[in-house]
């Protein structure tokens, strides 16, 4: 189902109603940054060429999103094996729409060099340990998400809230949370690699969930909703700090405005988490206000199963921008058509916002994105 440059893949009536309601409305753009030591494992992610690069990916992306290309960053965009950071897409759109941009630090190894809202979280340990975060931290982050979701929705009651993320290694924590919630996700999540490293992800997830079970049997984890897994305990065991913040924000914001979860399979995991948290903690929310918006490179990734995964989660509406880089004059963007990078920093959601709020077509969006790279290159060589 296509609507201009937006394709609806699941829950078509839901998607059509959401688009009709928010066409011409302006978004508030929030990006939630988190970290998991899972992202430092060699080969796990292509969002930064080396583990050292990947330590700073979120900080670099945040600076570019906030300040744009003509700025001397404390953390420059990391070199990638191929492609260019998806933040170029997000920046092109937020600059054109002139939308407010909020950056949240849910748990990074170092604070980003931008005016960010620190939520008092911590970086997650590797999910294979089955003890990624302290449960007190997870509960605190949910509370912060609920507070800020309500706050941001109150600022834009006629519009919608776009929630992006940057968590290197986050599709692996997504797989862990989805699997822990009983959703068939093996082989279906995406990655920044052209061919998804499913076996590597799955072996880490199995190790983490097994450790979680061992800790539970040893009485180290007190599950409040036995025999079902408490979703917050699951995030504490194998998740990352972004997931629970965005879930809380979406739950609270959905009561008063539209919510566009801007991301791929990481945001599908957030959707599953929203369902589980709302049920376990009796929180009211409006499912019809929430959609997941990503890029065509994620939705149609032949090495993943995004659409099938969305169908496996209760009532998730998945949209994707049909933005194409096939005709880009830059090889860094054409690499997306070979499966590199695909998504991040709310890029797909930002492109959807450009279609909805500015009525931009393919050539306008491509031109604005290319201009970001051109300006960056000019600034770096000046």
- Fourth-tier CATH superfamily name: Nicotinate-nucleotide-dimethylbenzimidazole phosphoribosyltransferase (CobT), large domain
Q: Spatial order of the strands in the main sheet?
A: 1-2-9-8-7-6-3-4-5
Stated plainly, the CATH topology is called Rossmann fold
Sheet-strand content, in percent, reads: 5-15%
Description:
This protein is of the alpha/beta class. It has a single domain, classed as Rossmann fold, CATH 3.40.50. It has helices at residues 12-22, 51-55, 57-67, 87-97, 135-155, 170-180, 198-217, 231-238, 241-253, 265-280, 296-299, 306-312, 331-334, 347-358, 362-380, and strands at 2-3, 6-8, 27-34, 101-107, 117-118, 160-166, 258-262, 290-295, 318-321. Strands 1-2-9-8-7-6-3-4-5 form a nine-stranded mixed sheet, with helices on both faces. Helix 4 (87-97) packs across helix 15 (362-380). The protein starts with a strand and ends with a helix.
Q: What is the structure about, briefly put?
A:
By secondary structure, this protein is an alpha/beta fold. The chain is built from 15 helices and 9 strands.
